[in-house]
Amino acid sequence: MNHPFFSKSKKKQIQFQVKIVFITLLFFLLFLIIGWFTKLYFIPFLIFFILITVIAPFLDVPSMKKQGKLIYYSNLLITESPKNNIVKIHGGTLLDYVFVIKREWSATKRRNYILKKYTEGLLNMIEDFEIKPDQKITFKATTYIINKRTATKIGFKIVDEELMQKGILLFNYVNLIISNSIVKKKISFPKLNQVITFEASLEDLIANKPLLIEMNKRFKIQ
Predict the structure, then answer these.
(1) What would the pLDDT profile of 107-137 be if each residue is shown by its tens digit?
(2) For the range 147-155, what are the long-range contacts, defined as Cβ-Cβ under 8 Å and sequence gap of 24 or more?
(3) By residue range, what is the domain housing residue 10?
(4) N or C of the chain: less Cβ packing under 10 Å?
(5) Which parts of the chain span the membrane according to its record (predicted)?
(6) How confident is the model at residue 104 (pLDDT cuts 50, 70, 90)?
(7) Does residue 74 share a domain with residue 175?
(8) Is the pTM of this model over 0.85?
(9) C-beta separation of 65 from 6 below 8 A
């Protein structure tokens, strides 16, 4: 995996994180002053909450990756380490979108790149787990990007929404707005009513591996 952030030296990664924290503190200080003079004291606290959710991926993800709690199977597909034979799949975080999506790309090229990296990540994940066929692993994901038709086509089954996962998406909604806007090259609000939760067994994914390979080839990013 050639990830622009993780390809940096440890020193440069830390320098970037320090810069992010410094800019965040400046923004908070600005709104603290605004709140003080306008007597709208809730404003700085609201802004602080929003800023924390936005910068969290830039601080948490590198740390969790280093600890082995997060595993990258492509630039934009991550899993949590297995827990109780369940592997939770996540699309890219804001950190990933900022570093891997190039400014000059069109919205169509950006979407194709994301879908290509999703399918590439799924294939890498399957290859990693299929050498351990004795494990009864269930893969789970909650997303608003992949629709039901595509999910079922590649071996997933739609299940009842996990309220906790939907709550996490709601908690990170500003973060999602920024990520979605990067993808579409315009301000774009994710529709949380389109969120679906799906799961698949390792056997189901292995059976649909040829289809994933074919889908991956179709997404052109040249």
Answers:
(1) 999 999 999 999 999 999 999 998 876 678 8
(2) 147/194, 147/196, 148/196, 148/198, 151/196, 151/198, 152/198, 153/208, 153/211, 154/122, 154/205, 154/208, 154/211, 154/212, 154/215, 155/200, 155/204, 155/205, 155/207, 155/208
(3) 1-67
(4) C
(5) 20-37, 43-61
(6) very high
(7) yes
(8) yes
(9) yes
